Amino acid sequence: MGASTGLAPDAHPFLGCSLPNSIFIVDDNSDVRAGIRRQLELSGFDVCGEAHDGIDALDKLSRVRPDLIILDMSMPRMNGVDAARELKHICPNVPVILYTAFADIFRRKKPFPEGVSEVVALLFSENHTGCIVAPRSFHTSSNLFGDT
Question: Domains in the chain, please, with CATH?
């Protein structure tokens, strides 16, 4: 069973799906990965793996099957958009959340790029830990994985 977020059962990002048991994080910044991991684990989620870019993710996700993949849009070697497109072939039933500081631009460009289930914003707190902020259409709170 997935972690409880305090959201109404029909208010999470993937209506009709259960909350994820395992989440895979992809970001080239190890501090951001650590901050996201910390927020997810404090919220009761299991982080089953991490990758430092899209190519590393493709390699690792050929062996690991998470319930959800969250990845940064801007990374070296293979960015998040290209990685999501390729991940759709490796893990076709696993939702992918792309995070970026430019989420508003992407949200206006529906449909999202191939393989991307949702686009959310990544904000930073005063201590520079990442915090993923979902659009209000996801749920009643603006913050998906922790307090800002």
Answer: 22-133 (3.40.50.2300)
CA distance 14 to 105: 21
Q: How many CB atoms lie within 10 A of CB 110?
A: 7
CB 142 within 8 A of CB 134: yes
Structure confidence by residue, pLDDT tens digits, 88-123: 999 999 999 988 875 555 556 666 777 888 778 776
Q: Give 118's strand partners.
A: 97
- Closest by CA position to 99, among listed 26, 17, 18, 35: 26
Amino acid at site 56 = D
Exposure b/e, 74-84, CB count within 10 A at least 16 = b: ebeebbbbbbb
Strand pairing class (46-51; 68-72): unpaired
